[in-house]
Amino acid sequence: MNLSEKSRQNIDSCRFCWMCRHICPIGNATGQERNTARARAMILSMVNRGSVELTPDIMDNIYECACCSACTCDCVAGRDPVEFVREVRRQAAFDQKTPAYIMRLINNCMESGNMYGASELDIQLKAAISAHEARTSLLLYLGSDARYQASEDAVNAIHLLEKAGISFTVLLREPDSGAAMEYLAGGVEETSRMMKEAVAAMNNFDTVIIYEPFDAKVICREYREWNLGLTARTQTFPAFINTLLKDGKLAVTRGKEKVTYQDPYILARELNETENAREVIAACGILCETMNNRKNTVLAGHLIMAQYRPDIIRLATERRLVENRASGASVVVVSSVAEKIAMSQEGKEFRVITLEELVLMHLKEG
Question: What is the pLDDT, as a whole number, of residue 5?
């Protein structure tokens, strides 16, 4: 394999280390050693040395990693197992060794502009977007997950900004951020092309508010690291809601309901954002922390992996819900479409709502 020196060093360091074995949400869910960073590094070390071939089974294992960076965040030696996983995926794409079930999603991205192969929006969402097609200085970027998997949440996000009385634009033909392609195949040419198309659209605005954390990571970080020419200012949706509350654009009444927050791993670990949502929740109710919060959060949903390993994601979500129960809260607030869907399906004893739903419930009249 043609891996970078940094990835080879990470592989060689991780293959004999057990220190993050208890951290991986996928390994904990399956109970299988193959799903630990150490086991993955061990087999990739053998592949890198030519001892074994990069077989379909090994590639299956590579795609059983959620790339949630729990192992990376916990590593006292500063190693990054996620980096070599991403590099192997990219190399497999070059060598035409990407599994067929992943190629199906990649082809959807390239042909339809999203991994779902979807083209038609929900009628209510389309109507909500149509009311905000006029050009302004502020773009609300919904992302493919919200547009095609959680249209009701997307409508609520638009509705909340309307309540704030601000002018904003939502694109009817919104280009995909390239986040799914980056996860599936890494920094290949097709990923860069999708990202550049998104940059061209975003640069027509002064500020871009990014609804979904999965998109926020690539837009706020990769776009700039890859020098794609993004000039618009970017902000996550939770941060923007918090700003609207602080600026008095939105006013809420505080209830007595106990609420816990499911930190999206991308916001907490990749973008170092943990407090905006908490400040919003504290303004609306009583915040009860779940064990393993902020950067120690545990993945509780993953829309891409749910396309090909729904069994694993279901197990991971169930394990996270055990911690939610211990918080004593009756409501779980999420900022991630993936976790809203997964936790709503598995956590029937909770009300699982988005941050914007919480604010809409507590808005002061008038």
Answer: 80
> 123-243 and 251-362 share one CATH topology?
yes
Q: Are strands 351-354 and 331-334 parallel, antiparallel or unpaired?
A: parallel
Q: Which residues pair with 236 in a beta bridge?
A: 210
CA-CA-CA-CA dihedral for 307, 199, 336, 246, to nearest 10: -170
Question: How many CB atoms are located within 10 Å of the residue 294 CB?
Answer: 16
| Helix (H) or strand (E) segment spanning residue 244 | helix 237-246
**Residue 343 and residue 341: Cα distance in Å, rounded?**
6
Question: What's the whole-number mean pLDDT along residues 298-313?
Answer: 95
The fold of the 251-362 domain, in CATH, is: Rossmann fold (3.40.50)
Question: CB-based contacts of 271: which residues, under 8 Å, 6+ apart?
Answer: 213, 216, 217, 220, 221, 236
All structural domains of the chain with their residue ranges:
5-98, 123-243, 251-362
DSSP string, 248-269: TSS-B-----EEEEE--HIIII
Total residues found in the chain within this entry: 366
Distance CA 150, CA 125 (A): 10
| Whether domain 123-243 has CATH 3.30.870 | no
List, for residues 40-61, the tens digit of each pLDDT value: 989 898 988 888 889 999 999 9
Question: Where do we find the tokens 């074995």?
Answer: 21
The neighbour count for residue 205, using CB atoms within 10 Å, is 21
- pLDDT at position 366 is 61
pTM: 0.93
Report the pLDDT averaged over residues 60-81.
Answer: 90
